[in-house]
Amino acid sequence: MIEKIICTICPIGCEIEVVGDKKNKSVSSLNGYKCNRGKEYSINEFIAPVRTITTTIKISNWKEPLIPVRTDKGVLKDKQMDCMEEINKVEVKPPIKRGDILIENILGLNVNVIATGEAL
Amino acid sequence: MENIDIIIIGGGPSGLAAAKAAISEGANSIVVVERDNSLGGILQQCIHPGFGLSYFKKELTGPEYYGKFTEQLKGEPIKFLLNSMVLNISDDNKVSIVSSEHGFLELKAKSIVLAMGCRERTRSNIRIPGSRPSGIYTAGTAQRLVNRQNLMVGKNVVILGSGDIGMIMARRMTLEGANVVAVVELMDYLAGLNRNKVQCLDDFNIPLYLSHTVTKVIGKDRVEGVYVAKVDKNKVPIKGTEKLYTCDTLLLSVGLIPEIELINNINLEVSKITKGPVVNQYMQTSKNNVFACGNVVHVNDLVDNVSIESEIAGKNAAKYALGKLEDPAKELKVTTGENVRYVCPQKINLDNNNNEEDIKLFFRVLLPMSNVTLRVSVENKIIFEKKALHVGPGEMEFVTIKEKDLKDVTSPIIIEVI
């Protein structure tokens, strides 16, 4: 299959055409990249695109109603909404330090949700 | 609070970086005045990643970025006045403050750092016709309500403006369960970063309409829809191209302006283009004891640049307070040439000729261009040149010059992109 990927590594935004097989995680040809970082990006983006999810979690007994969080690794792009649903079920309490794990191994994806804010 | 060296107005990324640098330079007593209930400014609601790549060499979210500064400032001789708002700076350097905790205060310091940031342009600034129902927010206000106050602003959303805040809010609203109907952009190019188009719009199949604008808002109590039309090359809506988009919310991401009403009484020189105070390479304004940094000077796209610039302001405000900064005697102007919209600093103080430090000139181009040369020249001599593959109005560029190249120079420095 062929996919056109806009590179996001730098502001030029090259349009890279990737030919390959997603199921076998193989790429047979690449066209339109201008650097090695772009090459690597387009291969990853073709085979398994991942995103860091950033959102908030409800917090009780604290001066603000929410605490900001993120995933500590990228989550597969099409799992973002499933993760959001799971994150929205959780409520936490202080004390919380930056980097504390608030949800361990979310949906068995081997990714943790960690605090990016503080409630001390 | 006697014998204050520096009063910093604003406890956002700019004020925090200025405070950090002022302490390193030896300032003995600093007061930071912040009107919000906590430090960090806009970064508190910027929960997305993308910060710190150049300053910390690490990708951080907004709260992680300012957290690195607040941690470093713990235990330093800095008094933070929260929930406190500066009402006025008088000509004799009195700073008037109202605060729920301290009441009315009048403080005086040897130097003042303006770090008030910027505010969003609103519907009134861009004059969108139609009725005046609820459901129209600036993107940043919506971001604060959703990310800090746990208040969802709407279910079906149209966003006007393809700047980074607009696109980031498109993703944020989608993740929180809203349906983003469209992102509409007046210009024929994307205002924000490509990365944000891919990760915030394309990932969620949100359509982007370039060369389009909102021509009318309809709805009585609540927004019921907006008309969107194509625009011609003069950005005038083309008759007959209007389409109705049903929605309950309109978010506006249509530009930012420095928030400088506070300086009305001290007569600082202000740039007509940036709308912020004119500064020299020490981030010193036309009033020698007043320094300015961050988005109050010119609207930045990266907080990393704000931190660098604010450290310069903090350092020199400390030097001024400690009597180590001479008043400028000879100042060179920095002017804009081909395809440059503005440059900051706009002046270079040539008093400290022993100063070996590089001077960074930040600037924005007028139009997107590829394969260009960024050139600085003075009196028909090129003093700096570098190539760039791509430049665009949404990305600040910089060039570095050396003060020793400016010896005996009297005419303005010209910066151009060709």
CATH superfamily of the largest domain in chain A: CPE0013-like
Overall tally of domains of chain A: 2
Reported by name, the CATH topology of the largest domain in chain B is: FAD/NAD(P)-binding domain
Task: Show the largest interface.
Answer: A-B, 28 and 28 residues
Query: Which CATH top level class of the largest domain in chain B fits?
Result: Alpha Beta
CATH superfamily of the largest domain in chain B: FAD/NAD(P)-binding domain
Mean pLDDT of chain B: 94
- Distance N to C terminus of chain A: 51 Å
DSSP strand content of chain B: 25-35%
Largest sheet of chain A: 5 strands, mixed
What is the C-alpha radius of gyration of chain B, as a whole number of Å?
22 Å
Helix content of chain B: 10-25%
Radius of gyration of chain A: 18 Å
Structural class designation of chain B: alpha/beta
* CATH class categorisation of the largest domain in chain A: Alpha Beta
The number of domains of chain B: 3
Care to give the gist of this entry?
With 120 residues, chain A is α+β, with helices and mostly antiparallel strands. Chain A has 2 helices and 10 strands.
Question: What features would you describe in this structure?
Answer:
The complex is a heterodimer of chains A (about 120) and B (about 425). With about 120 residues, chain A is α+β, with helices and mostly antiparallel strands. Chain A has two domains: about 1-50; about 55-115, Roll (CPE0013-like fold), CATH 3.10.530. Chain A is about 15% helix and about 35% strand. Chain A contains two helices and ten strands; from the N terminus they run βββαββββαβββ. In chain A, the strands form three sheets. A five-stranded mixed sheet of chain A has the order 8-5-6-10-9, with no helix packed on it. In chain A, a hairpin with an 8-residue loop joins strand 1 (about 1-5) and strand 2 (about 15-20). The longest helix of chain A has 12 residues, at about 35-45. The mean pLDDT of chain A is about 95. Chain B has about 425 residues and is of the alpha/beta class. Chain B folds into three domains: about 1-120 and about 255-325, FAD/NAD(P)-binding domain, CATH 3.50.50.60; about 120-255, FAD/NAD(P)-binding domain; about 330-418, no CATH class. In chain B, strands 1, 2, 5, 6, 7, 8 and 19 form a seven-stranded mixed sheet that branches. In chain B, strand 14 (about 210-220) and strand 15 form a beta hairpin. In chain B, helix 4 runs parallel beside helix 5 (about 165-175) and helix 5 (about 165-175) packs parallel to helix 6 (about 195-200). Chain B is globular. The mean pLDDT of chain B is about 95. Classes of the chains: A alpha+beta (about 120), B alpha/beta (about 425). The interface of A and B includes residues 51, 52, 55, 68 and 117 of A.
